[in-house]
Amino acid sequence: MHADDSNMDGATPSDSVEVGATVDAARRTLLIGAVATSAVVSIRPALAQTAGSVLNCQIPVPERGKGMYIDPTGKLVTPDTPGAFPPSPRDFTGEEVRKALQGSNLPGTTREQSQAYLNYIRKLQNGQSGFTCYASLQMPRR
Amino acid sequence: MSERAYAALPGHALKRVRMGGLEAIYHTPSGITHLLAEPVPELLDALDAVGTDTFVTAERLVAQIASRFDLVGDDPQERPEQVLGERLAELAALGLVRLRAEA
Known about the structure:
The structure holds two protein chains of two kinds. By secondary structure, chain A is of the alpha+beta class. Helices cover 26% and strands 13% of the residues of chain A. Chain A has a domain of 93 residues. In chain A, the strands form two sheets. Chain A has a two-stranded antiparallel sheet. Chain A has a two-stranded antiparallel sheet with strand order 4-5. The two termini of chain A are 46 Å apart. Chain B is of the alpha+beta class. The chains are: A alpha+beta, B alpha+beta. Chain B: It comes from Sphingomonas ursincola.
């Protein structure tokens, strides 16, 4: 239909009026810009950007200042609860948690204590300290 | 001469939301969001209208778009096929359209 390219220089409305007998009432002008003008901005997921810092980010178990113990299912309980573990004296790094999720114990913990802490970490939700760190462990490595 | 031809992705690969003059488009396979300005959403619309599995050249797509719009470029020296072809190549590089080189 547009075999003759010279007709396509610029925007000449007369070109397209020939195409159909009825011209759409909604027809409007489309600004196509120039060759070098990009019209796309890309936003990568925020969590993906943290992938580089996964090894060093911190996950407190549990959040500070609560005075709560952690039971084997990862729930926060009062310190007098039988079978519950005291809070971890230090935060765990993303790398330590990643290794623990693959089967080893968190540093300085027994098998049962490590499982209880991991169960707590698995229950972390958005807004809780350490959530973003834990969530970024779930992201596939690039 | 080999010519590049483009086709739309399957509908479920993209989630598109109109935001005033811009369009936010979420690319499900990569999880990346793109903000598109005119004329890119119109290009995607035109490819959709052609059909998901139909590959078309920039030239044919321009003919399709010109039947609905008056095309206005920044530089009269640049042909619409050239300008929109550049945008299509960009979309293909981002994975938002499929690309095929035609013999």
